[in-house]
Amino acid sequence: MYLIMEVLMIISVGGLIGVMQAGLTEWEIVLKSVASLFFVLEGFLGYRKAKGNRKVSFYILFALIASLGGDVFLALDTNKGILFILGVVSFAAAHVMFSIAFSKMSKIRKSDFVVAGVILGVLLVIMSIGTFDFQGLFPVVVAYAAIISFMVAKALSLWKCRKGKERVVGLMIAGGVFFLISDGILLFWMFGIGVPRIAQYANWIMYYLGQLFQARALNQNWEET
User: Fold this and answer.
1) How far is CA 110 from CA 70, 95, 130, 150, 198, in A?
2) C-beta of residue 161 within 8 angstroms of C-beta of residue 192
């Protein structure tokens, strides 16, 4: 059942890229919603199965649902208005939930803030030297960058507690890294000047792989956390 969900999600993403390449932008909201629905459904199935780690899986499932909301809001947005803000808030909430889930597995330490600061610093350097038009949304972008930087830092910290659940930790770390890559690409696609459309396709591929890894982590056999 999990494999079916993943295959359908991949097909939906392929269809999404296809309709955008053909210029059928009106289908974007449908296919993005469908593709996102599949990783939420896989996450829900994993949540029902993962009875021994509910305090972790609940937050991951909530994050997947919030991500679905963010996908819908951004797909509906046409002018970076209120729907864009709602989309950013939804994704920020998702990353906060992922951070809480990871913190349930590995306590927050000073090193997490150091790693998060390094990641945020790199993102700020990119934003300062790149050619961007933030359309007055720079504070929103920086706040979001800070949230995802901490989420990735907490994902990386899971490496210290991987014993007995190496596969789960590997999937969560991979998911966090793919989210960072996808958002980095999205930064250029949404605010960069003269960025080719292939950047959006790359963003979708990285993003849905990240969600797939997080959803799949819920249906693994792992020790109670």
Assistant:
1) 30, 19, 30, 11, 38
2) no
pLDDT of residue 112 exceeding 90, the answer is yes
Q: What does pTM read for this prediction? A: 0.88
Whole-number pLDDT of residue 135: 86
Mention every residue, 6+ apart, whose C-beta is less than 8 A from residue 163. none
Work out the burial of residue 117: count CB atoms within 10 Å of its CB; fewer than 13 is exposed, 13-18 middle, 19 or more buried: middle
Give the integer Cα–Cα distance in Å for 205 and 13. 7
**CA–CA gap between residue 197 and residue 98 (Å, rounded):** 29
Cβ distance 98 to 155 under 8 Å?
Answer: yes
The per-residue pLDDT for range 169-198, each reduced to its tens digit, is 999 999 999 999 999 999 998 898 888 888
Which of 207, 222, 217 minimizes the C-alpha distance to 70?
Answer: 207
pLDDT (0 to 100) of residue 222: 56
What whole-number distance in Å separates Cα of residue 152 and Cα of residue 102?
A: 10
Residue 52 has pLDDT above 70, yes or no: no
Residue indicated by tokens 């939420």 = 40
**Residue type for 107, please?**
K
- Give SS3 for 220: coil
